[in-house]
Specification:
The protein is α/β, with parallel strands linked by helices and 244 residues long. The protein has helices at 44-51, 91-95, 97-101, 109-114, 130-142, 160-177, 188-194, 226-241, and strands at residues 2-11, 18-28, 33-37, 59-64, 67-68, 76-79, 148-152, 180-184, 197-201, 208-213. A 6-stranded mixed sheet has the order 6-7-8-3-9-10, sandwiched between helices. Helix 7 (188-194) packs across helix 8.
């Protein structure tokens, strides 16, 4: 479980201080996958970095599994928007990077195979498609066997077919592994497809302005149902009221 209580994050000091998040509170239940949406620049990525322990709160508290977050945790994985691959390292080396940083001896071979990357282990990022790069980023996260998965725009700038493939992959992995997940996205259809609940943030400084329950998430063929279309339409309306 993730518990955020009165989280405030401010960049800078004095007259140059920029409040990114102000008094934000939220709860993500264990094994729940939650989408977070909001206007551009509202603080969504900042929130993810705080959940990951990369940013210390200016005020408020973050707890995971009952423990206060004080720095990066071994049981939390972060997937970056651009996959964050190092161009001079191979697919396998990139997938195992977080393991090596933590001093762990496990390998990512099985995970790479499960994600359809067997045979590409010795390739470099420049030799991969954008969709494959995203899968390597996911493999690096999964290699840690995380209890919590944080995802920052994992399908941004992908073509529609590849985007849906990655979304289906994330959903299948969530069902299979049972991690607790927080997905930040600008894509309203993605938010509805992958969020059991959808948290709508205000313009900066971010706070939660609405929580949308999405019980159909994960059901077979959900994308093609009237309920899905209705949820996307409602989310568009909510975000339209939030301003640009």
């Amino acid at each position: 479980m993730i518990e955020v209580d009165g989280l405030t994050l401010i960049y800078g000091r004095g007259g140059t201080a920029v409040p990114a998040v102000a008094g934000l509170s939220m709860v993500v239940d264990s094994y729940e996958l939650v989408s977070v949406v909001g206007p551009s620049g509202c603080g969504k990525t900042t929130l993810l970095f705080a959940l990951d322990g990369l940013l210390a709160p200016t005020a408020g508290r973050i707890r995971m599994h009952g423990e206060e977050v004080r720095g990066v945790r071994r049981d939390v994985a972060l997937i970056l928007q651009d996959a964050g691959l190092l161009p001079w390292k191979t697919v396998r080396a990139n997938a195992e990077l977080s393991l090596r940083i933590q001093g762990r001896k496990e390998t990512a071979g099985k995970v790479l195979a499960e994600l359809g990357l067997a045979g590409f282990e010795k390739r470099y990022p420049s030799e991969l498609s954008e969709g494959m790069k995203r899968r390597v980023g996911i493999a690096r996260a999964l290699a840690l066997q995380p209890r919590v998965m944080l995802m920052d725009e994992p399908t941004a700038n992908l073509d529609s077919i590849t985007r849906e493939h990655i979304q289906n992959l994330i959903l299948g992995l969530w069902w299979e592994m049972g991690f607790t997940g927080v997905l930040v996205t600008h894509d309203m259809e993605e938010a509805v497809f992958l969020g059991k609940r959808i948290l709508v943030l205000s313009a900066r400084p971010a706070r939660v302005v609405e929580v949308i329950e999405n019980p159909g998430m994960g059901e077979p063929g959900y994308r093609g149902t009237p309920e899905f279309v209705s949820q996307v339409a409602h989310l568009r309306q909510v975000l339209g009221g939030n301003g640009p």
